[in-house]
UniProtKB/TrEMBL annotation:
GO terms for molecular function: DNA-binding transcription factor activity. It holds the Pfam family FUR. SUPFAM superfamilies: Winged helix' DNA-binding domain. InterPro entries: FUR, WH-like_DNA-bd_sf, WH_DNA-bd_sf. This is Fur family transcriptional regulator. It comes from Coprococcus comes.
C-alpha cells in the first residue's frame, strides 16, 4: 500500500469523506515541495482555482490529527518504514534536499572533525527543542 492509499484509509477510518479536493491536496503534500499551509494553498490553487485557504488549513489539521503528517516534519507525509530526507536551508536561501545516506554522512563527517564520534557510524538522529 503506497502513502496515498494509506492516508485515504486513515481518512475513511476517521469518518472523513474523501473528496476530489482532498485527494488533490494529498497529492500536493506528497510532492514534498511545500513547507507551510500557504505554499500548499498556492500549489493547490494552481490545480483547482475554486479551492479556498480554509479548505487547505482544515485538511492539514485533519491529516495532522490522524497522524498522516507532522508539522515538525515540514508537512511531509509520515512513514516510519521509509528512508527520510533532510532539507537544509542556507542563509542565502539555497535549499539542499539531502537523502538519508548523504545527510548521515555529513553529520558523521562533522562529528569526526570535531572529535565527538570516535570514528563510530551514526545509528540514529533525533531533533528536539532546546
Amino acid at each position: 500500500m503506497d502513502a496515498k492509499e494509506r492516508i485515504i484509509e486513515q481518512l475513511k477510518r476517521s469518518g472523513c469523506r474523501v473528496t476530489k479536493q482532498r485527494l488533490m491536496l494529498i497529492d500536493v503534500i506528497l510532492e514534498g515541495k511545500c513547507n507551510c499551509c500557504k505554499e500548499i494553498y498556492y500549489q493547490a490553487s494552481l490545480k483547482d482555482p475554486s479551492i479556498g485557504p480554509a479548505t487547505v488549513y482544515r485538511m492539514v489539521n485533519t491529516l495532522e490529527q490522524i497522524g498522516a503528517i507532522s508539522r515538525k516534519n515540514m508537512y511531509r507525509i509520515s512513514d516510519d518504514g521509509n528512508k527520510m530526507e533532510c532539507m537544509v536551508e542556507l542563509e542565502d536561501g539555497t535549499v539542499l534536499d539531502l537523502p538519508e545516506d548523504k545527510w548521515t554522512a555529513v553529520i558523521k563527517t562533522g562529528l569526526d572533525a570535531c572529535g565527538f564520534s570516535g570514528g563510530q557510524n551514526v545509528r540514529n538522529i533525533t531533533l528536539k527543542e532546546a
